[in-house]
Amino acid sequence: MPLKKQESSHEAAGRAPEPLEVLVEELRHSDPERRWSAARRLGERPGAAAALAAALPGEADPRILEAIFTSLIRLGGDESASFLLPLLRSDDAALRGGAIEALQAMPAALATQIEGLLQDPDSDVRIFAVELTRKMPAEQATALLCRMLDGEEHPNVCAAAVDVLAEIGSAEAVPFLERCRARFDRDSFLAYAISQALHGLSRTAT
Amino acid sequence: MASPGLRPDRMNRIDIQRGLADVTDEEVRRLCDFVYRKTGMMFAEEKRYYINRRLAERMEATGSTSFQVYFATLRADADNEIEHLINSFTVNETYFYREDHQFRCLTSTLLEVITPKKKAGEPVRIWSVPCSTGEEPYSIAIWLLENWDKVDRYEIEIVGSDIDTTVLRAAEAGTYGERALMRLSKDMIARYFTKLDDGRYRILPELSSTLQFTKANIVNAGQTGAHRNFDVIFCRNILMYFDDTSRRLAAENLYESLRPGGFICLGHTESMSRITSLFDVCRFSDAIVYRRPLGESHG
Amino acid sequence: MDEIMAKRRVLVVDDSAMVRRYIRDALEHGQFEVQEAFNGVEAMEKVLSTPFDLLVVDVNMPKMDGYTFLHALRARGGEIATIPALMTSTEAGPQDMAAGYAAGANYYLVKPVRQDDLVDHANALTGRSP
Questions:
Q1: Residue of chain B minimizing CA distance to C50
Q2: What is the extent of the structural domain holding A166?
Q3: At B233, which CATH number?
Q4: Verdict on whether the full-model pTM lies above 0.90
Q5: Chain A residues inside the 8 Å CB shell of C95
Q6: Given a cut of 70, is residue A15 above it in pLDDT?
Q7: Could you give the CA distance from residue B96 to residue B222 in angstroms, rounded to a whole number?
């Protein structure tokens, strides 16, 4: 029979880890395989968050970008979050998207920042901030979004909040959604979205 | 009318006689939207009645007093509820030749792409992970022997891995009940199995000894690092149960375990779209398969 | 005998279920058949599996944004590369629009989009007058 059992290969047990600076250098290597490998390994090295984040804007390869974001998620914590938050303002959709996904994986680190972001002068940033609340604890996120809704004038930001509330919301959200609907044009997407959301939440009131 | 002995809250949430959950269309829609976002599975395509029954089972099983309570449990994935809900919609049994359209794709297309690039003596390497009790890797071996016209021209290395050593031992032992063999013809069973006194079947030692079974946790790069240079990986019906971060990690590990140009197959209800954009999407007549790009890599 | 024209098939690509439903409503009323995808990766899977006459593509989506998807689609060549694409986004800046056209969008609409505008543009891009 042609099926052949592979000779088991034992990898050399635990080679000594490279110095952090060497791996950081590799993040700028011209060979994408080396950058990929460095990005992955840095996810296990405390203190690597700054170097990983610094490599993001200059990295053109989307696969390596993804590996860098994954490593930042693994490192986690306030430090990683602090480097990711500014990317919400990036012009690059891939950087923004990657940062949003990474931040969603760090709900605790967002707790102190999220309220400010939901009040950011830039409506795009407020939209991304709303998306960040989707993976936060539901009660906390609902309270944040409801508070924001009452004062929010931009229909797209409201629509983003409605989308998240439709998923995570509960009885508390109902009056806020109704008030919001009254402020906008009946024919708009936003009115449609709010009606849908309310239908889904209509029986949550005890 | 209330039956004696039933608690009032149960009467509210489940229509006892029909096993249906007390849910509105919009609530079902909320559920379907969430499941679709999380897994890519479109429950909305199923019949409403069927969804309702599955929902009733899960509400009962989780002791949820209302849809809202159940939905909160689901969203928090408490006690792996997402997995339980998905499992209630899918067939979970493992058996030989499960989802064999992918094996068809393997021989009709994937190997046709892979083998021209092989140097003399270079084996074809296939990884089945998780392999559970071995049905999948043995199925691959049998399928190749039965269907691949080039099976004698190449050395084939099939590795089956799992995180659970109990199932690995069972895979190595290679004995199965009749039910696991239900999709195999009598001829094939006679060719590849011996019937045992207890009515079970054991795979021929020539087959079980040529497959390699190893322990591996695909979320752990250190463990997948020992599993490299695969041409094809079958990673079916596991990633969908991982949380978002674990899925990404596993996907990156599997990517590294593939040769450039190698292919990975997920379960038929799964999609890389909820996991990663590392792989190129390939559509072949029998399946959607994902490919590690060729790149400029050396070997 | 009146000719029965086959319905034009549209793929709506957006991570918001609300938006997909709203666009579906509009386009079904406009006599289109609608399918959905959550992001650029799923969109690629669907486009490779089924012929579409039109794509409606959001920009900001998890795993693969709309620009990346369109760019990858156009780069594949062949018939699927030329499917008309209507890009939709909350981003209203000139650089966002320019990026949309550079990625291969045929038209770029800033959200919120009205249902009748959607249908008008969908008709225009699929070569039929309303």
A1: B283
A2: 138-206
A3: 3.40.50.150
A4: yes
A5: 91
A6: no
A7: 30
